[in-house]
Amino acid sequence: MAPTLPLALLVALLAPGLGVAFPGCDYPPHLWCSSWDIAVACQAESRCANLSRPTSAPPVELSLFYESLCPACRWFLVQQLFTAWLLLPSEALSITLVPYGNAEERNVSGKWQFQCQHGPEECLGNMIEACLMHEAKNFTTYFPVIFCLESGSSVTRNLEACLQVYAPQLDGARIAACVQGDTGTELMHRNAQLTQALDPPHQYVPWILINGKHTDKLQEQAQTSLVGLICHLYQ
């Protein structure tokens, strides 16, 4: 009489493409393709044609309301936000930048005028970054340029140099025309409206929203370890 093979070994021999279980796989081979999680645990994803890869979770949404010359804003953008963007997979984090902060606007003879916490140069820096975003459209194009501006010696005088390094395809003259024209004013007015619509109203900058919400705890966690916070929240 032929020796009897254990069921798990028999299935392993007969199941096409399936073999010995990997460490961490506590399932018999005939179950390896019963779910995506089990297939991953047993490193059998490529052999389970009947399974579809699960759809990825939505990204964690971070909105940063800031001012171009605010020291704390610059530190967060350069040290935490840019680093997180570089380290995390693109599907895990979605970033919105709103340069305005504690500025004030008023309508003078039908034209919007702005007064910024750190003076006219900050208003110019805010508008440069707003126009840069408007012209570039793509976040992966303009964010490195904003990082360059905020980490450098001057937010308002280094645009051409930062463009040459990080986005040479962008036309600095078009950005300058935006800053000097009506488009830049309208962009800043929109940022003013977004900032004024915050609920709860912002009390300081940087003001950070995570998935549309602001709490003191989320703000502290974001400023302490943004990568850790995003990894904790991303499902």
UniProtKB/TrEMBL annotation:
One of its GO terms (cellular component) is lysosome. It is found in: Secreted; Lysosome. Pfam families: GILT (PF03227). The keyword Lipid biosynthesis does not apply. Keywords: Disulfide bond, Glycoprotein, Immunity, Lysosome, Oxidoreductase, Redox-active center, Secreted, Signal. One of its GO terms (biological process) is immune system process. InterPro entries: Interferon-induced_GILT. Its main location: secreted. GO terms for molecular function: oxidoreductase activity, acting on a sulfur group of donors, disulfide as acceptor. Residues 1-21 form the signal peptide. Transmembrane segments: none annotated. Its EC number is 1.8.-.-. Lysosomal thiol reductase that can reduce protein disulfide bonds. Facilitates the complete unfolding of proteins destined for lysosomal degradation. Plays an important role in antigen processing. Lysosomal thiol reductase that can reduce protein disulfide bonds. May facilitate the complete unfolding of proteins destined for lysosomal degradation. Plays an important role in antigen processing. Facilitates the generation of MHC class II-restricted epitodes from disulfide bond-containing antigen by the endocytic reduction of disulfide bonds. Also facilitates MHC class I-restricted recognition of exogenous antigens containing disulfide bonds by CD8+ T-cells or crosspresentation. Belongs to the GILT family. Dimer; disulfide-linked. PANTHER family: GAMMA-INTERFERON INDUCIBLE LYSOSOMAL THIOL REDUCTASE GILT (PTHR13234), GAMMA-INTERFERON-INDUCIBLE LYSOSOMAL THIOL REDUCTASE (PTHR13234:SF8). This is Gamma-interferon-inducible lysosomal thiol reductase. It comes from Jacana jacana. The gene is Ifi30.
